[in-house]
Design brief:
Blueprint: H1 2-9, E1 17-26, E2 29-31, H2 37-47, E3 51-62, E4 67-79, H3 84-92, E5 113-117, H4 120-124, H5 128-137
Antiparallel strand pairs: 1-2, 1-3, 3-4, 4-5
Length: about 140
């Protein structure tokens, strides 16, 4: 998240920049974005019937003001027991192919999710509550809403 934000901030002097990156972790294994349909199917099989972590690294920075805030937000998601037909059908939609862990809770993938503990917006990929708090702290915004 810092590297993403920094690479933009150096091009826009004085601007406050946000960077975020989300991963899924199950059984100690990091699941990023799948490299194709077969990997997406394997990831979904690994998540099927289990609870996993969703971690989003968040960075808000302003290089001119020398203000840098970093945070990791953690949520837990339980995926229902999936049939091979459900996995194949979902992957065929194309939605999982650019998502960490191969699912999008905000899209068709909502049908996979049995329970969620923590921030829904974190699972989507941008933890809104924490981001607003960071923007207030760095004084990029004066109040919200």
């Amino acid at each position: 998240a810092f590297e993403k934000a920094y690479s933009v901030a150096i091009k826009y002097d004085g601007k406050t920049v946000i960077g975020a990156d989300t991963i899924v972790v199950t059984d100690g294994e990091i699941l990023g974005k799948p490299e194709g349909e077969s990997m997406a199917k394997i990831m979904l099989q690994k998540l099927s019937g289990k609870k996993h972590k969703v971690l989003t690294g968040l960075c808000v920075l302003n290089l001119k003001n020398k203000k840098i805030l970093k945070k990791v937000v953690e949520s837990f998601v339980v995926i229902k027991e999936l049939t091979l037909k459900e996995i194949d059908s979902y992957v065929a939609t194309g939605e999982p192919l650019d998502k960490a862990g191969s699912y999008a809770i905000q899209g068709i993938g909502a049908f996979l999710v049995r329970d969620i503990y923590g921030s829904y917006s974190n699972v989507v990929g941008l933890p809104a509550c924490e981001l607003i708090e960071m923007l207030l702290e760095i004084e990029a915004i004066k109040s919200f809403p």
